[in-house]
Amino acid sequence: MAHLRCISGCDGVHDVFQPLFSCPTCGGLVDVAHDLAPLQQHAAEDWRARIAARAISPSPIDQSGVWAFREWVMPGLRDDEIVTLGEGRTPLLDVPHLQKSLGAGRVQLKQCGQSLTGSFKDLGMTVLVSMASAMKGRGADVRALVCASTGDTSAALAAYGARVGLPVIVLLPAGKISSAQLVQPVSAQAHVLALDGDFDACMKVVQEVCRLPGMFLANSKNPLRLEGQKTVAFEIAAQRGFAVPDFVLVPSGNLGNVAALASGFSLLRDLGLTDRVPRLVACQVDAANPLFRSYENGLQALEAVTAQPTHASAIRIGDPVSYPRAQRALRETDGLVTSVSETDLLATMVEADAHGLFVCPHTAAALAGTKALSDLGQLQKDTELVVVSTAHGLKFSPQKTAFHDGGSELDGMDIPPELAARRNPPEALAADTAIVRSRIEALLA
């Protein structure tokens, strides 16, 4: 019911249970393709009933927000081969302050960072690691799971690899990820190799390393990751009663996520659960926006850039490996691409945090992308948007603390006065009741 298919035009078809990270015929990307006929034998009402029943099931597999949709994800995998850590089933929250400022019909935030390792990468890793473990159990040569990472990928891979007992090797750019992100793979006993280059350099090395026998690539070039990430579309639709929004905005770096969302929403339409797919919006930052530049030129070709420093470190990628997938996804969904400045990103993050959301900088880039849509005249009073939040804000505590304390983390960035006025450092007071009471009265006056 599922196989690997080359997306580059050579029509190569391959067994999904073999370690294959690119087309052996032409070298292009491969994707997981599903046989729709057996799935379409079930009525949409039957699928909705099955999904609803699993939401209250005590089974650990059913409780997973990925494996609750297992027939649509990896139907050839046995239940005893599934490696889950309770991923998915994350909240979809209304964002009234943004809805009001945009004049839109509804704005919602899909909180994918509320997961075990604090990012949406858990959704992809449960599928990838389950498949790698199953392949090894079925006789394939799988010695280690290997990835290049800006932080979140390594955390998720290390956790799921530790869960099933597979060695994990991480290549990351030295000094370019937060301590909160670095401690996760280290704690899970992954082998962390810090390279003297950026993410793109790490990605080039890891692709060469994975030519060695038994090295299992865990970056989003591997289509197994996208099978888990597409379940974000399933959850959004189910949480909205299978009424899809007009736009879905997602932070975009290596570009696997926008392709995964397109795949998920397309499957829902093909199974009759929804009547259309939303327009996807890939959100980038000016410091690393090769997709935005390509979009402005009609998505004809990608020119790699040297990604510059940005607070949104997870999308600091200048040569994204999944560009052909994103190109196809944007064309199929009549999608758009936005790019925002560091100042706009930071201002949006501060505003979102002030309304209780505590977002990561990548999510802030996507939230800022809603303003770009408004400026383009894309939003009406009945337009509905969902913004995908990709990681938990706690992973970026040093950035947030530095902003409010005026610390060195933000050195080199010009903070406009109106943004500096939002700084909220702790006040030091004497342990004296009268002084404290007086200050409280002044604050609440």
CATH topology name of the domain at 86-118 and 226-405: Rossmann fold
- Structural class of the secondary elements? alpha/beta
Strand content: 5-15%
Give the integer mean of the pLDDT values: 94
Written overview of the protein:
- This protein is an alpha/beta fold.
- The chain has a domain at 86-118 and 226-405: Rossmann fold.
- The chain is built from 19 helices and 13 strands.
- The protein has helices spanning 36-40, 44-55, 60-63, 70-73, 96-102, 121-137, 152-164, 179-187, 199-209, 223-229, 231-239, 256-270, 290-296, 323-332, 342-354, 361-375, 397-405, 417-420, 433-444, and strands spanning 2-6, 13-14, 30-34, 92-94, 106-111, 144-148, 168-173, 191-195, 215-217, 247-251, 279-285, 336-340, 384-389.
- Strands 4-5-13-10-11-12 form a six-stranded mixed beta sheet, with helices on both faces. Strands 8-7-6-9 form a four-stranded parallel beta sheet, sandwiched between helices. A three-stranded antiparallel beta sheet has the order 2-1-3.
- Helix 6 (121-137) packs parallel to helix 7 (152-164), helix 6 (121-137) packs across helix 10 (223-229) and helix 12 packs across helix 14.
- The chain is globular and about 70 Å long.
